[in-house]
Amino acid sequence: MTNKNTINSLPLPPGDFGLPIIGESIEFLRDRNFTKKRQEKYGHVFKTHIFGQPTIVAIGADANNYIFTNENKYFTNNWPKSTRELLGAASLSVQVGTEHQKRRKILSQAFQPRALSSYISTVELNTYKYFERWEKLSNFAWYPEIKNYTLDIACKLLVGTESASQSKLGDLYTTWVNGLFSLAINLPWTTFGKAYQSRKLLLQEIENIIQERINSSNSKEDALGLLIQAEDEDGNRLSVEELKDQLLTLIFAGHETLTSAIASFCLLVAQHPQVLAAIRQEQEELGLNMPITLENLKQMTYLEQVLKETLRLVPPVGGAFRKVIETCEFNGYQIPQGWSLLYQIGYTHQDIDIYPQPKQFNPERFNLTSTEDKTKTFSFIPFGGGIRECIGKEFAKLEIKIFAALLLRNYQWELISQQNLDLVMVPTPRPKDGLKVNFQKILV
Ligand code: HEM
């Protein structure tokens, strides 16, 4: 349907705007079943009013397809003011249109197979370092530890810093992250104000690191080295000013999500001993000393299925917002210009028509003969889709797989009883008590 008059005469999706001004924001933030309840009442597309915006929530593979294939035509990205200002105007997540596409091309050079392959040794070294630490700790809350682990790897690869979680960079970073989804009031004592100050100091640190690297004759093969030298087809490179924003975005986008994914893997396989036994057996059959290479990782097919099922059941990103830039039609409803639109990852993965018994952790859904996620395009979207699909997707899969393979080969872990394993969902899913475990080396 292309006729504008016809679109304008279409009904709005069903739903309720809630209270004046605050709309349904409080229910949205507090009620884990906010979307489920409304989906049951109104169907896959409904309207609400959250974060000061009339918003349409669209659920399922068809909605994802419509959104991902109409980026820049009907939709553009839509971050809260605090996120936009703290990520910076030059951040890939904030850029739009052709600028965004050009930048993606340059940045993606740091995620090509050759580059990924060169990151393996850094990931391996950090993984062993943390495994040794955890063996000594023995009983501990795993989630905050995994967070330090992923931050150290991201910072080592992106800005060349060792053990960043224990350094000044780590402290500044934590204050900066706290402000990303806050009220954007820039005063010295507000969360946003403190985060804004930290952003300035972080950028200064990052600039020093970039300048040092540019001035040194030593061109290292890490992500920073690749990004400094990366060029578009006209030979343009990223300016230092832009590179700073891009690096900060990559550190953030890369490590919070990965932490959640790794922790969910550790939790789910501990709760499913048969799955754990099968992925251990796969490592044994492939050979416990098999070196970690891109080729060898590809052979870990059952582990791949388990990781896929982990990302289906507990996707680190639950969904994302867009802004409607031109009134359009979906499913017979009018989607008005100026409104927000929220696509749903978690609920797409719970579609009973695609994933029977969707709440069950069942890696067999993704075996070679199963067609579950192939039934419909965009029914499996832990990394989003279309032109804004996660740029770090392959790196994320690489890091999780290396972590998992080395863990399975050498260590065992048990969940400590009497802890709350319910998931806190914001900003990324994590067990309430931080995933307390007993961690030991496997004795042979
Ligand atoms: C398991 C780990 C990860 C998950 C589940 C994940 C998920 C996602 C999702 C769903 C999006 C799309 C958001 C949207 O539609 O607006 C996205 C975008 C993005 N991700 Fe990831 N991500 C992960 C790891 C990473 C890593 C390791 C990096 C970088 C090192 C990264 C960098 C980015 C960036 C820069 C974007 C914005 C892309 C753009 O707007 O063009 N992510 N991610």
UniProtKB/TrEMBL annotation:
**Entry cofactors:** heme
SUPFAM superfamilies, per the entry: Cytochrome P450
Biological process GO annotation list?
sterol metabolic process
Q: Which UniProt keywords apply?
A: Heme, Iron, Metal-binding, Monooxygenase, Oxidoreductase
Classification via CDD domains = CYP120A1_CYP26-like
Pfam family name, one: p450
Keyword check for Iron? yes
Q: Which one of the record's GO molecular function terms can you name? A: oxidoreductase activity, acting on paired donors, with incorporation or reduction of molecular oxygen
Q: Which family does it belong to?
A: Belongs to the cytochrome P450 family.
| Protein origin, superkingdom | Bacteria
Q: InterPro entries, from UniProt?
A: Cyt_P450, Cyt_P450_CS, Cyt_P450_E_grp-I, Cyt_P450_sf
Write down the PANTHER family for this protein, in alphabetical order. CYTOCHROME P450 26, P450, PUTATIVE (EUROFUNG)-RELATED
Protein's UniProt name: Cytochrome P450
Q: Which organism is it from?
A: Brunnivagina elsteri CCALA 953
- Where on this chain does heme bind? 390
